[in-house]
């Protein structure tokens, strides 16, 4: 039977830390496993990786990015930055080059553009070629407090740490408070990673002060390891 081409170019919209980049890396592997992409690797670029220093250089940089991504996924982070300034000729030149390469390499490169939802709508409508080629859109919702706690548990477990019941209870209260105060939306999973970095520094300082340490204590997280975490996260958010 004749084969019909199906486009997989996608727009990923959502706040930072919601998993857009992680899923873009998985998408290449999935499409490769299905026999839809030759290699399945993911190449990540931003505006600096696509725009040249002078007019005429940009198409070469765009083509080079597509060459590297051939057989896989080209992930354009902060894609809206290419079109947010209507006077930016370099950004417009990059978009024109992207549209051309998407057509020339149909079936060989899957392009994923990512940014905040409102910015991505403007990006797609900035060029008729983009609107017709990006036929899939996935919105990555912000994580709630229970999901943030689950992410924290997973990160600890994957790194060989054990969380005590007191640590988990205090963590649950921490994420509930930050989520209630709408402070987690700008960081999501990234905020969890920052919180754990502070907690692990606290744990290290605690263990240094203890002369005799059992092996299991080196991997155990206690409630006091969360001291100062909330204050630091709030300060980082307000900075």
TrEMBL record:
<dbReference type="Pfam" id="PF00004">
    <property type="entry name" value="AAA"/>
</dbReference>
<feature type="domain" description="AAA+ ATPase">
    <location>
        <begin position="6"/>
        <end position="144"/>
    </location>
</feature>
<keyword id="KW-0547">Nucleotide-binding</keyword>
<dbReference type="InterPro" id="IPR003959">
    <property type="entry name" value="ATPase_AAA_core"/>
</dbReference>
<dbReference type="InterPro" id="IPR000641">
    <property type="entry name" value="CbxX/CfxQ"/>
</dbReference>
<protein>
    <submittedName>
        <fullName>AAA family ATPase</fullName>
    </submittedName>
</protein>
<dbReference type="InterPro" id="IPR050773">
    <property type="entry name" value="CbxX/CfxQ_RuBisCO_ESX"/>
</dbReference>
<comment type="similarity">
    <text>Belongs to the CbxX/CfxQ family.</text>
</comment>
<dbReference type="InterPro" id="IPR041627">
    <property type="entry name" value="AAA_lid_6"/>
</dbReference>
<dbReference type="InterPro" id="IPR003593">
    <property type="entry name" value="AAA+_ATPase"/>
</dbReference>
<keyword id="KW-0067">ATP-binding</keyword>
<dbReference type="InterPro" id="IPR027417">
    <property type="entry name" value="P-loop_NTPase"/>
</dbReference>
<dbReference type="Pfam" id="PF17866">
    <property type="entry name" value="AAA_lid_6"/>
</dbReference>
């Amino acid at each position: 039977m004749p084969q019909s081409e199906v486009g997989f170019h996608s727009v990923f919209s959502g706040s930072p830390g919601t998993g857009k980049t992680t899923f873009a890396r998985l998408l290449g592997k999935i499409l490769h496993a299905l026999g839809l992409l030759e290699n399945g690797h993911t190449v990540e670029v931003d505006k600096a990786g696509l725009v040249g220093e002078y007019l005429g250089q940009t198409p070469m940089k765009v083509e080079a990015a597509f060459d590297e991504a051939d057989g896989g996924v080209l992930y354009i982070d902060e894609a809206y930055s290419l079109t947010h300034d209507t006077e930016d000729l370099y950004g417009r030149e990059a978009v024109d080059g992207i549209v051309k390469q998407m057509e020339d390499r149909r079936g060989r490169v899957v392009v994923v553009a990512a940014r905040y939802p409102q910015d991505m709508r403007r990006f797609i409508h900035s060029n008729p070629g983009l609107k017709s080629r990006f036929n899939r859109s996935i919105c990555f919702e912000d994580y709630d407090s229970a999901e943030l706690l689950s992410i924290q548990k997973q990160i600890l477990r994957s790194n060989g740490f054990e969380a005590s019941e007191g640590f988990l209870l205090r963590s649950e209260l921490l994420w509930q408070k930050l989520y209630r105060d709408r402070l987690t939306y700008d960081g999501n999973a990234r905020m969890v990673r920052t919180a754990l970095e502070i907690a692990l520094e606290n744990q290290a300082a605690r263990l240094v002060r203890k002369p005799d340490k059992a092996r299991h204590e080196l991997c155990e997280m206690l409630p006091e390891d969360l001291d100062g975490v909330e204050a630091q996260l709030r300060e980082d958010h307000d900075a």
